[in-house]
Design brief:
The chain is an alpha+beta fold. Helix content is 55%, strand content 18%. Helix 6 runs parallel beside helix 7 and helix 7 (320-337) runs antiparallel to helix 8 (388-399). The longest helix has 50 residues, at 6-55.
Length: 433
């Protein structure tokens, strides 16, 4: 039941710690009680011995204090030589009775000493009872500790079981976020992480379905066209030039199909990139190198590519392939939809979330009511199969980043594509100043 579990380890550690604590407390309590009782007995003997020695009247004091000191025996003993500082106190047993004896100076000139013996059998029995009571209390306390430990362990793992049961009963049609408000404060970060994962799964399932449907549609249409053209070509004999023209048209359709298949293959490659080990990279330096490549393309098309990168450096741990997929798509789309003699701006800045990367073009803008991150969604009259932004969104989700595509609001027509890299999720190392 508890094999290799957190609950078992918690129970063992709690029980061991409780047993040690109970044992130490009980031992110290018993030692304190025993020492207190014996200290009182020894103090009584010393006071009694001091009074006798001061008054030099043994018989009189015994008579007067016999009621105050029961089970007390006083003797005068003589030692062979004088010991000014001899005071000896010891315990002994005789006939299964327990005694405590004090040797105290009485008449040093005659080498006489007091030997005062007091029976402490009842005290011993009292201490024995106290010891037994403490042992019984410890046994009961140990049992209560086990019950408490088991109950506490159940309470501690109950949120985890609740999360496990909720996740175990989910399927792709019934995935719902975890209600974080119902979790203990300590489990809220875990709940947030699970909700983030659930959101990614929902998007993945949604886009995968759209991808499969879109792929089938995009491939079926050109196949139907190819078949129809071939059938028309075979209806009657044609000249060689007409056959060549028909084949060229068919080849163009096949080329479009090849583009679709290549983009679908890129999706599979991207999933492989997600499994790559993150590396330390200066994102600002990466952006500078990337824009150098695209600046040549912009100049060749009669367009400008401006940059504004802040701060000077931003070190992070991430998969460079995923970042490249996003930035490359942003720049390709911006240059594609920006007319000649216009400008594309790529800039970066730090905000509360992390690093904000923006690519701003001067194109015709977009229809914001359309989910352009879905597969095979296209706008405008430019060529493409509509998988670029889908790949960029998947890459951003894998990085734990935010991605958006909106129209400009500064009075100029165009689109602003943004990528926000979370400092926490991307394992921020340092920022160069």
């Amino acid at each position: 039941m508890f094999s290799n579990s957190i609950r078992r380890n918690f129970l063992i550690q709690l029980i061991i710690a409780s047993v040690i604590l109970i044992f130490l407390f009980s031992s110290l309590l018993y030692i304190y009680i025993e020492e207190s009782i014996y200290s009182e007995k020894r103090a009584d003997l010393f006071i009694y011995a001091k009074n006798i020695s001061s008054n030099k009247a043994v018989n009189e004091l015994i008579t007067e204090t016999s009621d105050s000191y029961p089970n007390l025996n006083v003797e005068i003993i003589q030692l062979k030589k004088q010991h000014d500082d001899i005071i000896n106190l010891y315990e002994h047993t005789k006939n299964e009775r327990n005694y405590i004896t004090l040797i105290y100076p009485f008449d040093l000139k005659e080498f006489n000493y007091l030997k005062i013996t007091k029976e402490i059998t009842s005290t011993k029995k009292l201490l024995s009872k106290i010891f037994n009571y403490i042992v019984m209390i410890n046994i009961v306390g140990f049992g209560l500790v086990i019950i408490y430990a088991v109950t506490l362990s159940k309470l501690l793992i109950m949120p985890i079981k609740t999360l496990s049961n909720k996740l175990a009963n989910m399927n792709e049609h019934l995935i719902k976020p975890v209600k974080i408000q119902e979790l203990p404060e300590e489990f809220m970060p875990l709940g947030e992480t699970i909700n983030h994962l659930i959101l990614r799964i929902q998007n993945f399932v949604k886009y995968q379905k759209e991808l499969f449907i879109g792929t089938a549609h995009e491939l079926k249409t050109p196949l139907s066209i190819i078949k129809l053209k071939n059938q028309v070509t075979l209806i009657k004999k044609r000249k060689i030039d007409e056959y060549i023209e028909a084949i060229n048209i068919t080849n163009k359709t096949i080329d479009n199909m090849d583009i679709i298949i290549s983009n679908i293959l890129n999706i599979g490659r991207q999933e492989g990139v997600q499994l790559e080990k993150p590396v330390e990279v200066d994102i600002i330096l990466f952006l500078k190198n990337k824009t150098d490549d695209f600046r040549l393309i912009a100049v060749n098309e009669g367009k400008s590519l401006d940059i504004d990168f802040q701060p000077n450096g931003f070190m992070a741990m991430l998969q460079v392939g995923l970042l490249n997929q996003i930035v490359q798509n942003f720049l390709q789309n911006a240059l594609k939809f920006t007319p000649k003699d216009s400008t594309v701006l790529i800039r970066s800045s730090q905000d509360d979330f992390g690093l904000l990367i923006e690519v701003i073009d001067e194109g015709v803008g977009i229809d914001e009511s359309v989910d352009l991150f879905a597969p095979f969604k296209r706008q405008g009259d430019k060529s493409g199969v509509g998988l670029g932004l889908f790949l960029a969104k998947s890459a951003a989700d894998a990085l734990g980043a935010k991605i958006s595509l909106k129209n400009r609001t500064d009075g100029t027509t165009g689109t602003k594509a943004t990528l926000q890299i979370n400092s926490k999720l991307s394992c921020l190392i340092a920022s160069k100043r």
